[in-house]
Specification:
The complex is a heterodimer of chains A (about 140) and B (about 160). Chain A is mostly helical and about 140 residues long. Chain A has one domain. Helices cover about 65% and strands about 0% of the residues of chain A. Chain A is globular and about 50 Å long. Chain A starts with a helix and ends with a helix. Chain B is an all-alpha fold. Chain B has one domain. Helix content of chain B is about 65%, strand content about 0%. Chain B is built from six helices and no strands. In chain B, helix 2 packs across helix 3 and helix 5 packs antiparallel against helix 6. Chain B starts with 20 loop residues before the first helix and ends in a 5-residue tail after the last helix. The chains are: A mainly alpha (about 140), B mainly alpha (about 160). Chains A and B meet through helix 1, helix 2, helix 3, helix 4 and helix 5 of A and helix 1, helix 2, helix 3, helix 4 and helix 5 of B.
């Protein structure tokens, strides 16, 4: 119950933050990414203020043995800087620059009467599963 | 509209370099959401990771986090309807499909997106995430500044 309420609260705060910061508007994202037009620094402002808060929060968490509502912290994420990381993020960045959507803002768009995110999210789902199928096949062969 | 400098809204330091106070407050809320998720249940608030794991394995907390994002954005739009805009023409169905496929594939192969590698990874001072952010930022800027124009995508 506490686990689920925490996740819901975090999601609400996340979505509200995305909306208020303007990041749920793909035009705002593109006005940062597109240096050929009128440039807006907003995205860097959002990311910097988010990282500032998370930096403090994650440093404080290092002093804790366990989260409030779980027995332990899950194993830390991967550390390798490999070809998968580089190629994956290259492709992600190109897709991001094409339409101005990354996963969070695309989800947020569902509540904003913005029909194009449906197309984007379905394609994103297909892309992710294609990648996972490709990884499995590569491991077998 | 957040980017337009409005002479009546030069409140506090929020207007530094044209960055509106809402921009910084919204960013801090995103950071606070990531901190809350980690302190409460030890999870990294990476939207792409939670999205794909949620579709594959379920686990209610994942769906609640994702649903929370949708509801939170809806709440924001309800409170501040003037902020709910899409300030670019639609790129058309095929660009949306291509973009979605690449974001889906790329975030799985690269292990995260703007939230997982950006907000959380940079906050955790993870070198892997710093590399990821530099790569996707560069690719995004190149694509939006040049590739979109070469492909003839509007705006």
């Amino acid at each position: 119950m506490k686990v689920n309420l925490s996740a819901l609260t975090a999601g609400l705060l996340f979505g509200l933050g995305l909306m208020l910061s303007g990041m749920s508007n793909p035009g705002e994202v593109l006005s940062f990414l597109d240096w050929s037009g009128v440039w807006s620094p907003d995205l860097i402002g959002v990311l910097s203020s988010a990282v500032l808060v998370s930096l403090i929060g994650f440093q404080l968490a290092r002093r804790k043995d366990r989260p409030w509502f779980e027995a332990e912290f899950p194993a830390p994420p991967k550390k390798d800087i490999d070809r998968q990381l580089l190629i994956g993020n290259l492709l992600f960045g190109i897709g991001w620059g094409l339409a101005g959507y990354c996963p969070g803002p695309a989800l947020a768009g569902l509540a904003l009467g913005n029909d194009e995110v449906l197309i984007f999210l379905v394609a994103m789902l297909v892309g992710g599963f294609l990648q996972q199928g490709w990884t499995r096949r590569r491991k077998i062969s | 509209m957040l980017t337009q400098l409005d002479p009546t809204s030069h409140w506090l330091a929020g207007q530094i370099a044209g960055i509106h106070l809402f921009t910084l407050a919204g960013g801090m809320m995103i950071g606070a959401a990531a901190v809350l998720l980690y302190h409460s249940i030890g999870r990294i608030a990476g939207v792409s990771g939670i999205f794909f794991a949620g579709v594959k394995e379920g686990a209610l907390w994942r769906w609640l986090f994702l649903g929370g994002i949708v509801l939170g954005a809806g709440l924001g739009a309800h409170l501040f309807p003037s902020l709910n805009i899409v300030s670019r023409p639609s790129p058309g169905i095929w660009i949306l499909v291509l973009a979605g496929l690449m974001v889906g594939w790329g975030t799985r192969q690269g292990g995260g997106c703007t939230s997982g590698h950006g907000v959380c990874g940079l906050g955790r001072l993870a070198p892997r995430s710093l590399v990821a952010v530099l790569v996707f930022m560069t690719a995004g800027i190149f694509t939006a500044s040049l590739l979109r124009h070469w492909l003839g995508v509007t705006a």
